[in-house]
Each structure stands twice: as C-alpha cells, then as structure tokens.
Amino acid sequence: MRTSTKTRYVLGATVGIGALAAVFVLRAGNSTASSPAAPPTTPAVKVAATEGDSPVKNRTIAYVLTERYWAVYEGKDVKADCPEGMNDGPREQFKKLFPEDGKQRTVMETQLAREGYQWHPTTSAETFPFHEEKSTVSYGLNLDGKVGPHDFVSPEGEQGVDNQLYRVIGCIANYRSSGTIYHFENEFMRRYDNDRMVIEITGVDSLENDADVTVTTYRGLDGLLTDATGNNTIPGGTQRIDMRWGKDYIQKLKGKIVNGVLMTEPIDRIEIPWGVTFETSGYQVFRGMRLKLKLTPRDADGLMAGYVDVDAFTYHLNTSWSTHHHSYGQLSSPSEYRAMRRLADGYPDPKTGQNTAISSAVIIKFSQVFTQHPDANSLVTRN
C-alpha cells in the first residue's frame, strides 16, 4: 500500500562573528518509503572573530576615494562672499550678446561662434564682468611656504593658504553646494569604476606617528562597498589595481604621519582619474600636489592641494560637461578660462613667463580597502 509522507530537512551552519544561520527546507511528496530517511548532518563551521584586527597588513594600508569637492568655502552669507552677485552662464551671456532686437543673425555667427570660443578660449577682453570670490577665508594649504597679500586664512586660522581657483569658481553656482558639478561629480565617481582613485600607504609602523611612509596612487577597477542603503560607503572592500590601462596614474609620494595626520611631500606632476558623464575617462593634472589626510583604520579625510593645470582643467571641463550642462550652474567656460589665466600663480612657461597653473584644493574622503595586485605574468606589455 502506497503511503504519503512529507520529509523536512533542516540544515544549519554557524559562520563568523554574528553566528549567521542559513536554513533550507526541502519537501519531498508521495514517497514510497515507510519512514523518512535520517536527515544529513552538516558540521558547524566556526571562524575566529576578527573585528578588532588592524587593517594594516605587512605595514601597508590602502584607501579608496569616495567623495571629492573643489574646495569652495561658503560663509553664512553668500552676499558677503559674492557681493557683486553670481556670474552669468552661457544662456545669460548669449541673450546679452544677441538680444531680440529684430536683427538677422546666422547660426554660424551666434551659436557656433560661442561654442568655438568655448573650445578655443582666449585671454582677450570680453564685455561681461567677472565676479571674483571676496572671502578672506578658504580651504587649502600653504603651497609656497609664504604669507602673501592675496593669500587666504583657513577656517582653522592657518595663514598663507594658496587657493586662487577658489577666487575664480567661488561665485559660479555650479561649484557651490547647490550646484550641478558639486553633486554629479560624486554621483558619477561612485557609479563608474574607471574613475576609482586608490592610495596605498606602505612602510607604516603606526597610524598615529610615523616619520617615513610612502604613498602610491593607483586606479582601482572595482565598485565601492556600501551599506544596506547603498548611500554610504563602508570600509573593508577590495580593489583590484589597474596595472595595464592605469599606469599613467601610478605615482609615489613620500610622507609622514604626525598625530594621526598624513602629510606628503609635493610631487612635480601627477594625473588623477576624474571621469564624469557617461563613463568618460577624464583626468586632472596637478603640479606640486600634496595630501593632508586624517587617518583612521576605517577611513581618511582631508585635502588634496596643488596647482591645477589651466589648459588641462578647461579641456576636462569641456569634454566632460556640455554647454547645456554648464548652463544649469551658470558656468561660462570662456569667462572662467580668462579668470584662471589672470589669477594663475604657479609654474610659469619657460618661454613666455606666463603662469600655466593655478593654486587649488580639493576636499576628499576615503574608505579603507584591501588592494589586489595582478600577477605580473597576467599583464600584457608593450615592446
């Protein structure tokens, strides 16, 4: 006589610190067996707790960039920072240049001409006034070791802060906390893996005080590890290092850690991956760049300061953001270029004597990661 039975197999496994239990329920119907078979047993797997372990392994710790903002200090009153108001963008300037006065104009002499000035900027005078940031306070570092009449004071009271880029972009809405670039540069950086900046600190004896460490910059290949909301990055992820297409981003900086703060010596020239819209593989060029980061086993935050190359900055802007997107934050690329050239304060051209770079600062945040370097045999090299 056929009997109907239902068999339940419950498998339990205890793994790691949280004693996570995985339970699977299997049902078998219309069995001919008179009694259910004994369920298989699975031995519990126990892993030693590692929550308190230091992420410094073999005197090495690494971090991945999770946030970056061009350093724009915003005081309590925007009118004090920008008493002349915010700068006009492409749409406002276009209306002033070509008013609806009944005059017939061609697309060539209007739209295409303005687009041409964006891609081929000049330092010639223009009819639009440019409103510079008037604050005396700015984020940044003392890059030249001097205290000059055009320098800023940091929010903490440090004298001699060099950040002339802030004077340029401080009254351009796109770069302020309500602006398009401020928001979307970080959105795209988190979304696209080809924009992943990784720093690896080696020779680390202590994250509190260490007189001699080496910082190597890389481009990572993996996404960011986030919490359950997907909005906040967390430490402990892994980043594969791009040793093939990311070789241009590999640079070494000497540094030291004092009271938990990493300070690196300036590097003459460095490229930082800076892709933006639609996974563009853009980068920024810094001269005399240095890092100042407060380190913890979980994260790091602080400043990346140096002289940004004016031509490279403008090229990146135009290739990453269309005129349409510039308009959302009232950013006129030709006007911005003129201001950057006028206020450039570093790295003069040997032939003309004109400064080619402008002092700047970027507010940056990192999360701790473990790096995975590829096997040398797996790399494709060029002869």
Give descriptors for this structure:
single chain, 383 residues, alpha+beta, 2 domains, 8-stranded antiparallel barrel, 17% helix
Please summarize what this structure is.
With 383 residues, this protein is an alpha+beta fold.
Mean pLDDT: 86
Quaternary structure: single chain
What structural class do helix, strand and pairing data support? alpha+beta
Q: Give the overall shape.
A: globular
Query: How would a textbook summarize the main sheet?
Result: 8 strands, antiparallel, barrel
Portion of residues in beta strands equals 25-35%
Layout of strands and helices, then pairs:
Blueprint: E1 7-10, E2 14-15, E3 20-21, E4 25-28, E5 60-70, H1 78-81, H2 90-97, H3 111-119, H4 164-169, H5 180-191, E6 197-202, E7 210-219, E8 237-240, E9 251-258, E10 261-264, E11 267-273, E12 283-295, E13 299-309, H6 310-320, H7 323-328, H8 333-343, E14 346-348, E15 355-372
Parallel strand pairs: 8-15
Antiparallel strand pairs: 1-4, 2-3, 5-6, 5-15, 6-7, 7-9, 9-10, 10-12, 11-12, 12-13, 13-15, 14-15
